[in-house]
Specification:
The protein is an alpha+beta fold and 442 residues long. The chain has helices at residues 5-13, 15-24, 31-60, 170-185, 217-223, 258-275, 299-309, 321-331, 351-360, 374-381, 387-412, 425-438; strands at residues 2-3, 65-68, 74-75, 80-87, 93-99, 105-106, 111-116, 121-130, 134-138, 141-146, 152-158, 162-167, 199-205, 227-232, 238-244, 252-253, 256-257, 279-285, 289-296, 337-342, 365-372, 416-421. A hairpin with a 2-residue loop joins strand 16 and strand 17 (256-257).
Length: 442
């Protein structure tokens, strides 16, 4: 039995008559009047406590039924809904429910209140945000039901333990898949593919603004109206993603490790490439190549990538960029777009990265993707008046300057560069890839 607020108020109310009796009696200093006042308070408290016990016992035969819907794969860094199903019997029920979700998960509150009408079933939905990937044990449900008189709660446990897995951003992948499908079917118009590919897709009528060089004169003569060729980017090309899991990728940025932002971007890029018919391979490296998934095509390959990359975690090791690039070049001899996802600081700290990416330009199209911390951007852009804040802003500005110089050096070597905030990297990387495809840069 758990006392309710109403019970405490009634117990407090019981002291009032005793105090009045003790203060207005013939001689309140005499022990008999004080003893009588205490006796009255004890009798009142005893009656109230007995009623509270009876109130709690009434819940025993009329408990609600509470269960948690089975949990599926959860997405890191996303609000994942959790549904609790509550069914009341003959009486309405006032409840407090606490779900024993893993302590590493964030949620707006830990205790949820709900009132369920008689013979009704309600669904209580709340959200959890995991900050790390892996397997987690979900515990029991703790339920409190208020008695019909409102004097006490009865508490019990509901066995609902299960193991759940936290994956990369599957919600983002689903949204990206929908967007790519809409683009492919023409429901979203973009600066499109006309004349920017190499493979013939279809004929359509000439519209204002079309390139006259794409007019198919033979088809125009046969059908007696201007027709133009629609060209698509070449398919069945190869994309290789090298994902750094070294020291710089262990830093926490906006609640997630930088490596997790990079992993989400890797899978988003892989989905876009597989959707366009390309072959995709992925390597995860630190001092050596830890995971290598050979290039394949098809949507099933995405599930293989998710299963093999999800268990990987960043390590406090200095990455060997040259070794990773060498391994990838040996295993992928044909020309490919090689995307290396990492972070850069300055030319000195990134000297090995500069040398490694330069080795790729002879045979492949190298692409360096840098994951930027948005907090540094905000620090550099915020006006300051205090001396300490001014120093912090100066450091942020210097970091950004050194970063731009390093990336400019990469571009001079013929390397494509993308520098974006971690929370925007997936979308910008996919858009950049689609632009490269449309311009036939691969």
């Amino acid at each position: 039995m758990i006392p309710s607020r109403q019970l405490y108020l009634l117990l407090l109310l019981g002291t009032v008559p005793g105090l009045l009796l003790a203060s207005v009696g013939p001689d309140f200093s005499q022990p008999q009047w004080l003893g009588l006042a205490i006796l009255l308070v004890l009798i009142w408290d005893g009656i109230v406590l007995l009623l509270a016990v009876l109130d709690a016992l009434q819940v025993t035969g009329d408990r609600v039924q509470v269960s948690r819907n089975p949990l599926q794969r959860l997405s890191i860094g996303r609000e994942n809904p959790v549904e609790l199903v509550i069914t009341a019997d003959q009486r309405s029920a006032v409840l407090q429910i606490r779900d024993d979700y893993p302590p590493d998960f964030a949620s707006p509150t830990s205790v949820y209140s709900i009132t369920v009408s008689p013979h009704q079933t309600e669904t209580l939905t709340y959200a959890v945000v995991p900050s790390k990937r892996g397997e987690y044990r979900w515990g029991q449900l703790y339920v409190r039901q208020l008695g019909p008189w409102g004097l006490a709660w009865q508490q019990w446990k509901v066995a609902q333990s299960q193991t759940v897995e936290v994956y990369p951003d599957l919600v983002g992948l689903q949204a990206l898949s929908i967007r790519l499908t809409l683009q492919a079917t023409g429901n979203i118009r973009q600066a499109r593919r006309m004349g920017m590919g190499t493979e013939f897709a279809e004929l359509r009528e000439y519209a204002t603004g079309d390139d006259p060089r794409l007019i198919d004169w033979k088809a125009t003569a046969r059908r007696d109206r201007l027709l133009v060729r629609v060209l698509e980017p070449e398919q069945e090309q190869t994309l290789v993603v090298l994902l750094d899991r070294g020291r710089l990728m262990t830093a926490q940025v906006q609640g997630l490790a930088r490596y997790d932002w990079g992993l989400n971007a890797t899978l988003s890029l892989a989905l876009a490439a597989l959707h366009r018919g390309d072959r995709v391979g992925v390597g995860v490296f630190d001092r050596q190549m830890q995971v290598w998934v050979p290039p394949e095509r098809g949507q099933r390959h995405l599930f293989r990538l998710i299963d093999q990359l999800t268990p990987t975690q960043p390590e406090l090791l200095e990455p060997d960029y040259l070794a990773a690039v060498t391994v990838a070049a040996k295993r992928q001899t044909r020309r490919a777009l090689v995307v290396l996802i990492t972070d850069v600081i300055d030319a000195t700290a990134s000297s090995e990265l500069l040398a490694a990416m330069g080795h790729l330009t002879a045979r492949h199209l190298p692409f360096c993707v840098a994951l930027r911390d948005p907090q540094i951007d905000r620090q550099a852009q915020t006006p300051t008046t205090a001396i300490a804040d001014t120093y912090a802003r100066a450091v942020a500005l210097d970091l950004l300057t050194q970063r731009r110089l390093t990336l400019a050096t990469l571009q001079q070597k013929g390397v494509l560069v993308l520098d974006a905030a971690v929370d925007q990297i997936s979308d910008q990387l996919v858009d950049r890839y689609l632009q490269l495809k449309a311009r036939n840069r691969l």
